[in-house]
Amino acid sequence: MARSDIDDLLKFLDAFPPESREIALALRDWVWSLYPKCNELIYDNYNFLAFGWAPTDRMSDIFCSIAVGTRGVIFGFMWGVELDDPKGLLAGGGKQFRSIRVPDFGKFPKTYIKGLIKQAYLISLDRLGNRPQTPEGQTVVKSISAKKRRPKM
């Protein structure tokens, strides 16, 4: 499925408020403009809709992602703990993932986050080791949960 084929994504986003859909789609367009040869991997989970970009088709290679849930939209980094974040904008207390809430795309710190994405992308490439990079610029639906806990809002 190509980047322009967003029918599945729009269907998955339908369960969320219009504001969250707009923010998620604006973030998506922005990331695609920066990394058009990477793959977008979509996971329609039971609580969240998450989609991220990777130089392969594997979840473990995702370098940045967007998650939409009942409390809004977050922009995250799979290996966020390894990023140099001098402004301390990224939140999270786990061993790996870090993110920033995005209540308004117009106020999203694009220039700063663009630098973090570049770091995350290089980390992802480094973690590939000897595995081949398979950038194709494709959108791939990786999973769809049969049961959803989130109600249609």
Radius of gyration: 15 Å
Low-confidence stretches: none
Secondary-structure-derived class: alpha+beta
What series of H and E elements makes up the topology?
A: HHEEEEEHE
Write structural notes for this entry:
The protein is α+β, with helices and mostly antiparallel strands. The chain is 28% helix and 22% strand. It contains three helices and six strands. Strands 5-4-3-2-1-6 form a six-stranded mixed β-sheet. A hairpin with a 4-residue loop joins strand 1 (39-44) and strand 2. The longest helix is centred in the C-terminal third of the chain and has 19 residues, at 110-128. The chain starts with 6 loop residues before the first helix and ends in a 9-residue tail after the last strand. The model has no long low-confidence stretch (mean pLDDT 90).
Label this structure with key terms.
28% helix; 153 residues; globular
Give a quick rundown of the structure.
This protein is of the alpha+beta class and 153 residues long.
Task: Lay out the secondary structure.
Blueprint: H1 7-13, H2 18-34, E1 39-44, E2 49-54, E3 64-69, E4 72-77, E5 98-101, H3 110-128, E6 139-144
Parallel strand pairs: 1-6
Antiparallel strand pairs: 1-2, 2-3, 3-4, 4-5
